[in-house]
Amino acid sequence: MSILVRSYPSVLTRSRFGCTVSTGSYYPLLTLRVTVTATKTIAYLRVSTDKQADRGVSLSAQRAKVEAYASLYDLELVEVIVDAGASAKTLTRPGLSRALEMLASGEADALLVAKLDRLTRSVRDLDTLIHKHFSSVALLSVAEQIDTRSAAGRLVLNVLASVSQWEREVIGERTKDALAVKRSRGEKTGGSMPYGYVLAADGKTLVQGGSEAEGLDLIRELMERPDLSLRGIARELTARGVKPRGKAWYGKSVANIVRFESRRNQKQKQTLGVSNGEVRSAA
Predict the structure, then answer these.
(1) CA–CA dist 220, 214 (Å, integer)
(2) Where would you tag: which of 4, 107, 117, 263 has the fewest CB atoms within 10 A of its CB?
């Protein structure tokens, strides 16, 4: 792109009294032509599922946004690369790998996305991309108005990454607290059903029952015997024909059941102590 600049040059003269006088009106017009090179940019588009088309992140919507942005800011789109049906959980994507290779080889100087989550949803992956790829080339985002060609743009990107990390940690803490409350109530918190238990009618609370209930009673009985190790309990269960979850009874599988039973008994004792007005240690 060329910009035409016109100016009227002046000759500055200094008088005997130290005053500066401009005599520019006596000189002809000068014309300067300054050429501004547009930034060569790769646009990257991604959708993970067909349902995302209903949320404004379809490929056509992303393409329209990046093309409008490129036109507004005089970016030269050398190529538009698409990852269709690709998850943001990993950076191993054909389109993204090709875009990063083009940036590394100097075929383009910037990567443009419609929104930062089209590139990645992981703060760790974003940090990897910034330090490994975008330290020498620019990252541009339409939605977040990020342009790392400037110091301000780099600051905004770092702030957004920090906020995202904070948000993930807060969600993790809330989830951990919520699961702890569910466990204290004897509710299922995910994963496989503990040995010897089924869900109660409310669909949340664990109660002993099912075909493994008798086996669980036997395990509790064997746990009281000081002469039996975990492997000893496993051998005893095998000898008595108790059906295991897997191929056979092992000390490790018995240990998992014993550990769950110990935690459950401790929670029940704490709950009973509180209901009786007693204060008991959680240790």
Answers:
(1) 10
(2) 4
Q: Which residues of 241-259 are buried (b: 16+ CB within 10 A; e: fewer)?
A: ebebeeeebeeebbeebbe
In terms of domains, do 58 and 122 share one? yes
Evaluate whether residue 140 is within a structural domain.
yes
pLDDT tens digits for range 102-129:
999 999 999 999 999 899 888 788 888 9
For 113-164, the DSSP string reads: ESSHHHH-S-HHHHHHHHHHTTTTSEEEETTTTEETTSHHHHHHHHHHHHHH
Asked if 281 is an active-site residue, the reply is no
Choice among 10, 15, 22, 48 that is catalytic: 48
Domains identified in the chain, total number: 3
Task: Give pTM, 2 decimals.
Answer: 0.51
- Residue 43 DSSP SS3: strand
Tokens of 201: 């009618």
**Residue at 54 is within a domain:** yes
Shared domain check, 211 and 141: no
Domain interval for residue 30? 2-35
